[in-house]
């Protein structure tokens, strides 16, 4: 069957479904389940898949292209539909649903045999005469702990060998860690195997018993050494106690007044999305996880589906889950999570204070991890992600075009177009426009002319570089009047491109984003403000640079056209050939006659004109 016919058939079947809660099951030609979803009204939700795909993500388009038929199961309520959906996804593991593996495994802390033991992270216990502590659920916590323990006790983390069979220790030049006081330097032979082993045992005791018992023991040893006038040992123990106290302080840096909670934040960009999860236990950050997915239909749907999948396995939901934005089916998810936990579970969106700062930190980590996954820069991903949220876009705009008009009292009007791709200037895509039809002093009309010409170029060159790329967002230097002038052009061409204006304050600084319905303040969001201000400054610089160049050329042309026999065409030809008015002034009659279109009388007039000045 022709793909279009198949879609029409499926849409017809979807339109016959009831407006009732339930679950829908998408299957391919082999009768394999490829997607399971829930709906409060089956007819409305399922028919959306087989209508216009303009607002569909690439993942949804691919899924729809593989659907051969679908089945539905009616439910008595949305909650029952959610429970049934969880059960079916767990059973079928459909290709296009969010699937999370629940096999994190355990981590261990490994202490290699003496002398000069190393303390490292391990994924499993081996029969290698090493000592293992654990198992621990959080690999993140193990990595952090191992790193801090090695720094606190000055233990070696390099791969050097400090003993060579029965031969004495070879003295080597210590590495950087020794010089920054993060290693006691066994490689330089100044610490004995016994003294090093004492440090290792203290580290093990701290791992097993905690900070306070070890701290009390060391304090007692320090006082005893001082009483025995062993001041060198007392000073060493004092430094060790200070390091342990610093370790205790560092462990409290990321803390929450709410003892048990999870924090979720989403970053999207460059065709991918990242969900970052922070786990807080006892008020401390105990673990973190990140997951990379394709771009979702919406942030709300991604958060909702992720929470559903994340807590549907062995994970036990905490009483509080803080998120960075709205969650689809939030009330139903809270009911489902509460039933699973056996107590009330809340999904909250912190707006201020400590909790908002923790969500913001989680969001920054999501951006950084996404940047690593897509090979970009964390701050650019974060800025574009925040921009999408601020402007209500489905996804962060990868390709932004910004336009500005420049003129002097209406004369020599021009427009500049700058392009930012993935948050960075793409200078090879910059374009300049001379205003041909609009009144030079009418900025909205000039922008309407320029945008019309630019989008017509897109229609002609679609798919090619430059004008053949459709922008994700169009920005205009100006307010509501500029946006109102341009939007009819975009709508008439049936191009789904959001258009916004960049509004300046009295000091010519970016103040807000203008829409047809009002303004969106951006000063509270530093990343968005910086990005838009940079774009606005760049387009202004580019447009005014072109205007100044054209004005200069225009004045030169005026100088030349005042000469008898030299019109606009000949003046442009002369400027192209000689490059400047000074060069034309110094040109001889013979040199002028070498220019196509310059006759002998005209050449004589040019020479006479400059001699008389």
| Inertia-based shape | flat
At CATH level 2, the architecture of the largest domain is 2-Layer Sandwich
What structural class should be given to the helix and strand makeup? alpha+beta
Number of domains: 5
The CATH superfamily of the largest domain is known as: UvrC, RNAse H endonuclease domain
* Distance from first to last alpha carbon: 82 Å
Largest sheet: 8 strands, mixed
Helix amount:
40-55%
Number of helices: 20
CATH fold-level topology of the largest domain: Nucleotidyltransferase, domain 5
Mean of residue pLDDT? 84
| CA-based gyration radius | 35 Å
- Find the count of extended strands (DSSP E, 2+ residues): 19
**CATH level 1 name of the largest domain:** Alpha Beta
User: Would you identify the regions where 5 or more consecutive residues have pLDDT less than 50?
Assistant: 249-253
What does this structure look like?
The protein is of the alpha+beta class and 613 residues long. The protein folds into five domains: 3-92, GIY-YIG endonuclease (3-Layer(aba) Sandwich), CATH 3.40.1440.10; 107-250, no CATH class; 261-376, Nucleotidyltransferase, domain 5 (2-Layer Sandwich); 399-548, 2-Layer Sandwich (Nucleotidyltransferase, domain 5), CATH 3.30.420; 562-612, 5' to 3' exonuclease, C-terminal subdomain (DNA polymerase, domain 1, Orthogonal Bundle). Helix content is 46%, strand content 19%. The protein is built from 20 helices and 19 strands. The protein has helices spanning 3-15, 42-49, 58-66, 78-92, 139-153, 176-179, 193-209, 211-227, 231-250, 299-310, 330-341, 353-374, 378-391, 443-461, 480-492, 526-561, 568-578, 581-585, 589-593, 600-612; strands spanning 22-27, 33-39, 69-74, 107-111, 119-122, 131-136, 261-269, 272-281, 284-294, 320-323, 346-348, 399-408, 411-421, 424-425, 431-434, 473-477, 499-504, 510-515, 518-521. Strands 12, 13, 14, 15, 16, 17, 18 and 19 form an eight-stranded mixed β-sheet that branches. A five-stranded mixed β-sheet has the order 9-8-7-10-11, with helices on both faces. It has a three-stranded antiparallel β-sheet with strand order 2-1-3. Strand 10, helix 11 and strand 11 form a beta-alpha-beta unit. The chain is flat. The relative contact order is 0.05. Residues 249-253 have low confidence and may be disordered.
């Amino acid at each position: 069957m022709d793909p279009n016919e198949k879609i029409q058939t499926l849409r017809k079947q979807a339109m016959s479904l009831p407006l009732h809660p339930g679950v829908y099951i998408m299957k391919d030609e082999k009768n394999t389940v490829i997607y399971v979803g829930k709906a409060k009204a089956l007819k409305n939700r399922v028919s959306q898949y087989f209508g216009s795909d303009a607002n569909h993500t690439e993942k949804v388009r691919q899924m729809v292209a593989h659907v051969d038929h679908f089945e539905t199961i009616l439910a008595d309520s949305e909650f029952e539909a959610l429970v049934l959906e969880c059960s079916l996804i767990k059973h079928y593991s459909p290709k296009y649903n969010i699937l999370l593996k629940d096999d994190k495994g355990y981590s261990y802390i490994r202490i290699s045999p003496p002398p000069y033991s190393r303390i490292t992270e391990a994924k499993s216990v081996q029969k290698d005469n090493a000592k293992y502590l654990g198992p621990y659920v959080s690999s993140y916590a193990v990595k952090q702990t191992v790193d801090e323990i090695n720094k606190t006790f000055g233990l070696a983390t390099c791969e050097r060998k400090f003993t060579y069979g029965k031969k004495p220790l070879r003295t080597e030049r210590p590495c950087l860690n020794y010089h920054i006081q993060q290693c006691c330097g066994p490689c330089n032979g100044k610490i004995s195997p016994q003294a090093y082993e004492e440090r290792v045992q203290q580290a093990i005791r701290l791992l097993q018993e905690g900070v306070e018992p070890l701290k009390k023991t060391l304090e007692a040893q320090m006082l005893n050494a001082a009483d025995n006038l062993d001041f060198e040992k007392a000073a060493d123990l004092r430094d060790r106690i200070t390091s342990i106290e610093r370790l205790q302080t560092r462990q409290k840096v990321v803390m929450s007044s709410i003892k048990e909670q999870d924090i979720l934040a989403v970053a999207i960009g460059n065709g991918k999305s990242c969900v970052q999860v922070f786990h807080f236990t006892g008020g401390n950050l105990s673990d973190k996880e990140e997951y990379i997915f394709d771009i979702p239909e919406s942030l709300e749907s991604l958060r909702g589906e992720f929470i559903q999948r994340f807590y549907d396995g062995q994970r036990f939901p905490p009483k509080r889950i803080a998120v960075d934005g709205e969650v689809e089916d939030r009330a139903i998810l809270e009911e489902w999570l509460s039933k699973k936990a056996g107590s009330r579970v809340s999904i909250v969106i912190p707006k201020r204070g400590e909790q908002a700062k923790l969500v913001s930190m989680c969001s920054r980590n999501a951006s950084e991890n996404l940047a690593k996954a897509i090979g970009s820069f964390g701050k650019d991903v974060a800025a574009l992600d925040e921009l999408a949220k601020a402007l209500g876009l489905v996804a962060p705009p990868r390709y932004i075009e910004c336009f500005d008009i420049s003129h002097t009292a209406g004369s020599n009007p021009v427009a500049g177009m700058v392009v930012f791709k993935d948050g960075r200037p793409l200078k090879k895509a910059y374009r300049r426009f001379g205003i041909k039809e609009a009144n030079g002093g009418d900025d909205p009309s000039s922008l309407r002319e320029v945008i019309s010409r630019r989008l017509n170029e897109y229609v002609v060159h679609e798919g090619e570089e430059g004008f053949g790329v459709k922008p994700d967002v169009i920005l205009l230097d100006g307010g509501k009047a500029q946006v109102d002038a341009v939007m009819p052009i975009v709508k008439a061409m049936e191009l789904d491109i959001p258009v916004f204006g960049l509004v300046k304050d009295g000091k010519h600084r970016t103040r807000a984003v203008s829409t047809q319905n009002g303004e969106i303040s951006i000063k509270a969001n530093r990343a968005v403000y910086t990005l838009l201000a940079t774009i606005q400054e760049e387009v202004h610089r580019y447009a005014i640079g072109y205007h100044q160049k054209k004005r200069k050329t225009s004045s030169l042309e005026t100088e030349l056209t005042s000469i008898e026999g030299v019109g606009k065409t000949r003046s442009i030809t002369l400027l192209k050939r000689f490059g400047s008015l000074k060069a034309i002034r110094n040109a001889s009659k013979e040199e002028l006659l070498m220019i196509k279109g310059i006759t002998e009388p005209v050449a004589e007039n040019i020479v006479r004109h400059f001699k008389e000045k």
